[in-house]
Amino acid sequence: MNGLQFEALLPYTLLAAASLVVILLIAFRLSHTVIQITGFILMCAVMVALLQASALLPVAIYPIFQIDGFALLFTGLLVLCVMVVGLFSFIYFEEREENPKEYYILLFLGTLGAAVLSISSHFISLFIGLELLSVSLYALIAYLRNRNNAVEAGIKYLVLAAISSAFLLFGMAMIYMETGSMEFATIAKKLQTSNGHSILFITGTGMMVVAIGFKLALAPFHLWAADVYEGAPTPVTAFIATASKIGVFAVLLRFFQTIGLSNYPMVITVFLVLAVASMIIGNLLALRQQNLKRLLAYSSIAHFGYLLVAFLPGNAAGVQVAVFYLLSYSITLLIAFGVITLLSSREQDTGDLALFRGLFWKKPVTAAVLTLALLSLAGIPLTGGFLAKFFVLATGAQQQLWFPVTVLVITSVIGLYYYLRVISTLFGEAVPTPVKKTLHPFFYLTTYTSLIVMVVLLCWLGTFPNDVIEYINRQLLIR
Q1: How far apart are CA 109 and CA 123, in angstroms?
Q2: Closest to 251 (Cα-Cα) out of 116, 446, 422, 403
Q3: For residue 406, how far is the Cα from the chain centroid?
Q4: End-to-end CA distance of the chain
Q5: Which of 6, 306, 332, 458 is most exposed, with minimal Cβ within 10 Å?
Q6: What separation in angstroms does the CA of 69 have from each of 6, 72, 311, 473?
Q7: pLDDT tens-digit readout, 338-384
Q8: Which of 225, 335, 233, 245 is closest to 289 using CA atoms?
Q9: The model's pTM
Q10: Which helix (H) or strand (E) holds 61?
């Protein structure tokens, strides 16, 4: 490895070092507060390293990694999500008087796995990144093993991840048998010299799509997704809904574009079916949910169905829209799960909608923040969610994908109902809530500040998106 490659890989080296630093801090018996602050500083260092690495791109570390503007965008989004999740984690675990020090080791390892996915250009690095992410999530989901059905949720995720890995490995093996390579670019070249329609390649690609479907909780591979969301600690649920899915979607997007899967009508048909099924099933299942975490789980199924509509064309415009959509969606979900974290008591997470009744009369600012997040998920104007959904519609219409675009419009109207139902609950008659343990005001202040900053950013994305879109375009040109 030369000096240029080392500098380009520095952000990922720092991510790996973050877990080692936390292990040393635990060995010296330092407090949760010290570990939390150190972790936040390390994530800031990773962001600085990413900015410095942007001047060196693109850099290939043959044959397993491709560090370019695409990777920079997704890794930066991952790290931002983890910084926010880390802030939520301190309040969440301090109120439960748990010993959450090892939690940060797992969190940073999971982040490293997702980041490795974003730079993967080879089946080996793809599998290593996916397994590092998955193994970390097993423990994170079941971390509060005596509460919130956490062990059940962890086992269910373990089963889903095992099935996903089995399909993924079998699919990779079949593609390797056909092309004789596991590197994305080499596979693409091999397919150019053949017809690319062999049974081995099509079947292998189909199995990989099934594996990705499990990881993204696309219908009909969404089994137990809501149970995992509900049983996991709320900050972990936020990590699953944002960072883990961003990493998986990044490698799917790179593989799709490098191989040129948009040239295969059968593959496009499969993704079209997945998109339509996810939009319909996700919204219908969310209609009768009485738990906000479960509602957001089914909502995420629908939103990734929307995202696949931008993914289908396989062109640069689709990638740009996908990145913008993920940015808006991640900010929105972090706001929603941040509110749930702040309202959760020591005994249980505030998930049931009945516990949100009358929140506006008790905590008007918190209720307003949650309302804005729900409006963004519904795609109401002046929020980032509205423009993200509009760009997806425009991309689909330009490619004349009229059927999924029509389904998107209809299911968005269905989604509007259950989002407004939650909002109406916030303005209902107030119910008594348990008294919470009081922590140092500084940590509540930082958490509330992060929520307000994200709300402002969400509104900015919904009104002045040009700067963000131009930055995304500049980074995507670095290939």
Answers
A1: 20
A2: 116
A3: 25
A4: 20
A5: 6
A6: 17, 5, 18, 9
A7: 999 888 877 677 778 888 888 888 888 889 999 999 999 998 998 99
A8: 225
A9: 0.93
A10: strand 59-61
